[in-house]
Structures are given as C-alpha cells and as structure tokens.
Amino acid sequence: MSRTETMDLTKRGMLQSSGCNRLMDRAESLKRDSVMSSGGSAKVRGSLERKKSKSFKEGESYPSLLITDAPGSIAAVRREQVAAQQALRKLKIAHYGRSKSTLTSFNSSKIVPLVHPHPHPHPQRCSFITPTSDPIYVAYHDEEWGVPVHDDKTLFELLTLSGAQVGSDWTSTLRKRHDFRKAFMEFEAEAVARLNEKEMNAISIEYKIDMSKVRGIVENATKILEIKKNFGSLEKYIWGFVNHKPISTNYKFGHKIPVKTSKSESISKDMVRRGFRYVGPTVVHSFMQAAGLTNDHLITCYRHIPCTLLSTNR
Fold first, then answer.
1. pLDDT of residue 91
2. How far is the C-alpha of 305 from the C-alpha of 300, rounded, in Å?
3. Which of 42, 47, 99, 142 is most buried, by the most CB atoms less than 10 A from its CB?
4. How far is residue 267's CA from residue 133's CA, in Å, rounded to a whole number?
5. What is the rounded CA–CA span in Å between residue 263 and residue 102?
6. Rounded distance, CA 23 to CA 236, Å?
7. pLDDT value of residue 310
8. Residue 123's pLDDT is what?
9. Which pLDDT value is given to residue 117?
10. Distance CA 268, CA 222 (A)
11. pLDDT by residue (tens digit) across 115-156?
12. Distance (Å, rounded) from C-alpha 139 to C-alpha 164?
C-alpha cells in the first residue's frame, strides 16, 4: 500500500470517530435534559400537593353553595346588604306611605321616629351630637330640634331659651328650662307682661337669672301682646316670614350649617324695629332651628326625613 493510500484511510477513520463522538455527546445532553425536566415537574407536583387542604379529597365533587353561602363570602355579604335595603324600604312604605296622598294623612302633631333597621342600637345623628353629649341635649335633638312649632306659648319659650343660651350653651340652658317655666308662668305672655320691678328682682334672685335678661323677657312679652293685636297671634307673625312653610336644607357636614342666614337677619331686623330684645341674627337663627322654621338636620341624620315630611303636611 502506498503512502498516499495510508494517509487517506487514516483521515477517514478520524472523521468517523469524530462523528461518533458528536452523536454520543448529543445523546448524553438529551438524557440530562429529560432527567432535569422530569425532576422539575415532580417538584411542582409535590409543591401543589402540599398546598392542598388536608380536608380536600381527591375525586370528590363539591357543591357551589358551599362556596357562595360560606359565612363571610362576597355573595353572602351582598345578600345581607340587599336584604337590609329591602327591609328599610318596606319600613319607609309602612311608615310614610308611597305617595303624597298618603303623606297628608300623617299626623303632624306627634313625631314617631322611623325605626332604624340597622342592628346598631344608636341611630346616626347630626355630627354635633357625640357619644359624650348630655342625654338632655340628645333628647332635645331627637324630639324637638327642627320640629315645626305653632303654639304661641312654646314659641315664646323657645325664643327666650335661644336668647338665654347666648354666652352659655344649649345643654346648660336646657337644664334650667324648668326654672324658666316656673319663673315666667309657663310663658303666658299676658301674665309675664304684668310683672313689676319687685317681682322681676325676686325672680332674678330665686332662679339665678341675670336681671337684664329678666327685664328683656318681660319686655318681649309686652311686644308679643302687640303682635297678637296686629297679626292675631305670634305664630302668624313668625311663620309669615317663611310663607308658613319650613325651610328644608340639605347639609352633609356640620361645619356647613350657618350660624345666621339672610332670612334670620331680616326677621331680626323687623323684631328689633318692633322693640324686641335679645333677637340678634344668630339668636333668631337658633330660634328658627328650635321652632322648626328651618330643618337643619344633616341629610345623614335619622331625623332629617321625618322633619322634612312634617313640613309637607301643613
């Protein structure tokens, strides 16, 4: 064999050996990939199996009610909300009726608070009523504030109390309400107007009421008698400023409620002209709120709707 043929055979053998080596390397690579893939999937399956609930049983079916009716589920909470809304609607219909024709039959002489369907025992009130508010003040808010008043004696009383709370507060004034009634003969304007200087001084000492305020109340009684001669009653005079219909406001926040308005300023101006005392715009606006000439209950307060309905029934 020549030298050239020997070199050709050697090259061919080296090429065949190189090709075999490449095939073997490829096979080894595929085998490693297969092992790694099967191992990774096994790890994933293992982690998933570990996350399954212990009470979960493979192959069993579970009804959807166990999910939707479970306590605390979104569906259960939503159903409770809808049920509460429907209950509130039924209560409103049963209490006030569906239309204005049924509203007119509502007895405006007595306020029956709307039963609140919320399980919480305390209904939502105006923001100035807090958990630390005096019970007498809370009762005044719930039963009187914003309720239209058409009785002359009660109007005289509320006008007096509104003036008396200047420099003080409503809670302190309401605590002395009984003393005011005793001192001024249950606010009979005719009897109060006849009080002389000696009697006024005795009232001031006995009931600890400032003498200037006692004189002011007596003078207001004499002006009320003049009002009755000219208008027939104090009620007709006062309610004439609002066309005998309460002003219904829609305040959302307590700080939005004004201390005086253009209406209270016009009423104050006329009363001062007629000789009334302690009837500034702020006092008059407080009197308007107390006597129900304006309903300043916040729209979030449970008393807003009943007081608004009373304004439509007269």
1. 57
2. 9
3. 142
4. 31
5. 32
6. 113
7. 81
8. 82
9. 43
10. 17
11. 444 444 568 999 999 999 999 999 999 999 999 999 999 999
12. 19
How many other CB atoms sit within 10 Å of the CB of residue 289? Answer: 21
Please report how the helices 262-273 and 281-290 are oriented relative to each other, as an axis angle in degrees rounded to 10.
110
Identity of the amino acid at 240: G
Whole-number Å distance between alpha carbons of 143 and 208 = 27
Do the beta carbons of residue 237 and residue 139 sit within 8 Å? Answer: no
What DSSP assignment string belongs to the chain? --HHHHHHHHHHHHHHHHHHHHHHHHHHHHHHHHHHHHHHHHHHHHHHHHHS-TT--TT----THHHHTSTT-HHHHHHHHHHHHHHHHHHHHHHH-SSHHHHTTS-TTS--PPPP-SSSSS----TT--TTS-HHHHHHHHHTTT-----HHHHHHHHHHHHHTTTS-HHHHHHTHHHHHHHTGGG-HHHHHT--HHHHHHHHHHHT--HHHHHHHHHHHHHHHHHHHHHSSHHHHHHHTTTTS-EE---SSGGGS-S--HHHHHHHHHHHHTT-SS--HHHHHHHHHHTTSEE---TTSTTHHHHHHHHH--
Q: How many CB atoms lie within 10 A of CB 173?
A: 19
List, for the chain, all residue ranges whose pLDDT scores fall below the cut of 70: 1-74, 76-77, 80-81, 83-122, 311-314
